[in-house]
Amino acid sequence: MKAHLERVHGLAPYLPGQSKSGWVNSQCEVIANRYAEAQLDGDKQRAGHLFNNLQVLLFHHQDILTTGDIRNALQRAEKRLEARNR
């Protein structure tokens, strides 16, 4: 399962020392950053796959994550890339 999470969804395995909510939120940030990079690179296929990963993360963790959390993570990622490219 850990290999599947990492290879297919780009998620780090959940480690017992981490809080579940911390893990979910950090994975959301990681995927949002990768999505923003793919968008900037014009890689629509990769961006679509990463956006799907965000939807899957939301579906499986609705008790922790909201669509607003994902939207905010995407906005932060876009701002970071804009600042980096200036």
Summarize this structure briefly.
The chain has about 90 residues and is mainly α. The protein is about 75% helix and about 0% strand.
Describe this structure in words.
The protein is 76% helix and 0% strand. The protein is mainly alpha-helical. It has one domain (2-84). Helix 2 (20-41) runs antiparallel to helix 3 (44-60) and helix 2 (20-41) packs across helix 4 (67-84). The relative contact order is 0.15.
Question: Layout of SSEs?
Answer:
Elements: H1 2-9, H2 20-41, H3 44-60, H4 67-84
Helix pairs in contact: 2-3, 2-4
Main features:
mainly alpha, globular, 86 residues
Distance between the termini: 40 Å
Q: List how many beta strands DSSP finds.
A: 0
Q: Spans with pLDDT under 50 lasting ≥5 residues?
A: none
Label the overall shape: globular
Which structural category fits the helices and strands?
mainly alpha
Supply the number of structural domains: 1
Biggest sheet character: none
Helix-residue proportion: over 70%
Order of helices and strands: HHHH
Q: Give the count of helical stretches.
A: 4
Which value, in Å, is the CA radius of gyration?
13 Å
Averaged pLDDT: 87
Query: Strand-residue fraction?
Result: under 5%
